[in-house]
From TrEMBL, chains A, B:
Keywords: DNA-binding, Transcription, Transcription regulation. GO terms for molecular function: DNA binding. This is Transcriptional regulator, HxlR family. Residues 15-118 form the HTH hxlR-type domain. InterPro entries: HTH_HxlR, WH-like_DNA-bd_sf, WH_DNA-bd_sf.
Amino acid sequence: METIENKILPNKEECAGALKNVFDAIYVLNGKWKLPLVLSLMQSSKRFNEIQKEINGISPKVLANELKDLELNFLIKRNVYPTTPVSIVYEATDYSYTLKNILIELSHWGENHRNKVKGKV
Amino acid sequence: METIENKILPNKEECAGALKNVFDAIYVLNGKWKLPLVLSLMQSSKRFNEIQKEINGISPKVLANELKDLELNFLIKRNVYPTTPVSIVYEATDYSYTLKNILIELSHWGENHRNKVKGKV
DNA sequence: GATAGTAGTTACCTAATGGAAAGTGGTTAC
DNA sequence: GTAACCACTTTCCATTAGGTAACTACTATC
């Protein structure tokens, strides 16, 4: 069965490269929270407490860590506005939009998989 | 800046759904190994020891666990051939090819991100 | 002066992930 | 019969992720 798939995942060298690439991507995007956080901020910029409310169940400690991590990888930006008191607003970066396709595909797959599992049970 | 992105991630309800979907997908595909394993088996079916060799650094315990998990989620198939001694060959399933787009996007992103980080350092 | 909100930090704890090393039960080759 | 291969399993351990709760420093409001 040499089907269409082989057009996209062709030969051994390219697949070894793909394997390494996928590993590298997972290394940066690991954990429960990073991709959902980026997605949330892509939808709209938010303050710390607003993120906590939307991303149900994340603790302030974990949220603070994840935000720092994402900032180090250029995936979000922390803006401090000199109001009184200061407002701190997190926003998606131009670079974070390079994750758009991954997020779209993950969203489709997650929805489809949920339906598949529901159907089976 | 109401740009192209808004065509794909439009309103609040749809984004809440997308968030849930991404969460569900990550729940199934979490960890360092699952997506690389699926990718490896999409490239070609393999035996246990062959997988260990290709996926550098995975221990037999972890590999056995991950393979069971993936099988439960219909993402790989464990075939036992009645040779002497029996050969056990793991292969990708039709369902695992629904991850193809995610893997392609992750591979592109991982490669691009590696270059970006290299460029910065 | 007390209360509440904002944006976290700190200390402590548990659970899950993952790794090393050895063992198991079978077969095959020398 | 001994060594090696296959496909794991078992045991033990270290690391990490993630959660709870309390606390901080500041400001605003009642």
